[in-house]
Amino acid sequence: MSDQKVVVPSSNLDTFYTKPNNLVDLFENSAAKFASRNLFGTKNKTTDQYEWVTYDAVALRVNNLRGALNKLGLSKGEKVGVIVSNCAEWFVCANATHGLGGIFVPMYEKELQKVWQYIIQDAAIKYLFVRDQKIYDTVKSFQKNIPTLKDIFILFGEGENTLSALEKTGKANPSPSYKPGWSETAFIIYTSGTTGDPKGVLLHHGNMTHNARECRETFNINSDDIGLAILPWAHSFGLTADLHCYLLGGGSLGFAESADKLVANFSEVKPTGMSAVPRVFNIIYDKIQQGVAADPVKKQFFDAACAEAIKNRGLAEKTKDFKDLDALVFSQIRAIFGGRLKHVVTGGAMMKPEIAMFFSDVGVPTYDGYGLSETSPVISNNSPGRGNKYGTVGKAFKDTKVVIDKSRVGEDSPDGEIVVYGAQVMQGYHNKPAITKEAMMPDTWNGFPGVRTGDRGWLDEEGYLHITGRFKDEYKLENGKYVHPESIEGEIKLIPCVSNALIYGEGRLYNVALIVPDFAALKTDPKTAAWAQGTPAETIANKECTDFISQQIIGHLRKTFGGYEVPQKFLYIVEDFTVDNGMMTQTLKLVRRNVMKKYGEQLKALYND
User: Fold this and answer.
1) What integer pLDDT is reported at residue 312 of this predicted model?
2) Which pTM value belongs to this model?
């Protein structure tokens, strides 16, 4: 709870918690206990089947690589980097590094070269692992300007500078594992840089193990559980909620191939749990609605099942009518996820309560949580044991205190800046003392540091946290009213015919919106199909079509937002916001400055009409 009292001597955090209080012990304990259990599953592109490796097999690879890194001369506190998507090799590199007291620095495989170069130089990475020869050839050129970068190794390949060669070396040169203390740095997780250069968040072993333990306990992850790893481990959400949480519980993790193969991966891995951003479930919800709408018979049974589910909410014993319709209708939706999914942890944005309640009715409950890279990441969450209050991000984790600071908004404001003290709070930003001082609180709580989140929110009487916006994105209209654009954008993206949106209006009389339509949805919706049979460019050139979408947006927003928040004019574009074009972060957050750089003048021109 947010007001719980825990007496923690600030000078003795290394010994306060029972082990494992470091990531080396965490894995070694699980590898000993669950040696023959499957740990990681990877899709074999040749056989089109998932192939699994055990805890024991992964532990052997970790031991071998640790021996090789020790022979190379990796010392305590030195940095090892990796540029690759989630895979068994990612973890082998990380745990081998930690087993020598090293610090691991993960980077995204799909990233700008200049960002890789910035991170490698800023973190002073000594050894770097990359996916393949293509990335190797790119980063090799960095060495002449980054003297700290001693060597680069290819993860998937044969030859001298490869992971397999290192593992052979390490097998012949074993090295015992070092067990880091609670407060020793484990990771530097670089933020997405939505407002400037990436910032390296310093997270120690205590941060990571404590947060993983809380995640595991709130969802009771054990050796019978299988997760589908969708979120990148280069971000702390996937790193904690998936990797370390499942490792701690003895569970298994299958690697999702890509966003467009998720449905196939669901049926192949048959996960019992997963973590995701709400956008994944919004898309699936839209597809379900579109599929049902296209078949009058299906729609009749679907609507009946939904109506009966609403009647049965909160009932311990479901009615016979619900059970019959559940078996006929909802079982088919559960089958989309593999038929065994017990829960979904969502973060990065809020799940729309109506959509969350729909999936709960279906038998796939979703639980919103909240956190930052700076908090390892989880601050609060909803869960089966703690309660699930829709529209909130749950209650604060153990050893966590949430404070609502109203100094930026005034004491009469219903909300304020969310400030967090706790075991999960970072050490600071690497090489950025001024920014660290600005973010970190000058005091502590029960020996734990505090950090300003930059987010707005409030706590209700039951201790549930409500998020109302982000200070760094909010702006003021000409009339003095404040606007939180991400809340409006999130609501717009719930409309089936919209793929993405950006709201603009700083210093203006009213808001305008940049809209990327969902062209596939437009083609399948009987109301819009006639307008959308041509190319996307032809579709947005059709004023009847764009006027229809605009009215859908305006009507939908007026149910929730004040008139001054609803956009009055719209700019329609064909190109969606993606990671590849730099308009979305790796965790699917809008890079506002990049979108404005490309479309800002066109948006501003809307005010000239």
Assistant:
1) 97
2) 0.90
